[in-house]
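Weekly puzzle thread! Below is a chain. First person to post its structure in token form gets bragging rights.
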Amino acid sequence: MKFKDCTSQVPREHLKQIQKNMPHSKINYFVYNTYSIMRSEATYNGQPIIHMSISESANKAIPDAITQLAIKELASGLTKNDFEIWSPPMSNLLHLHYEKRV
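Winning reply:
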């Protein structure tokens, strides 16, 4: 796996603050080269919800290959088509949201 879990290196106060905003979510942080990801996973009414925020530290746009790799490694067999994706054009920040709809 290219993305390495670095949750244990995130300051405890930062994790507590994030957890306040998403109290029912499991939060993890991952890094690969200049890319970092915050992933939250939760269940709402029995349905899984995954949110990932991908950022790039050199202020460059996030290539599709990195998005695909992050989804492949961190989203339990889902594909890019399963996610709603938000990002300004040529941004170094990308938000992905998956919510199973029945």
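Puzzle host: Confirmed. Bonus trivia for everyone else. The chain has two helices and six strands.
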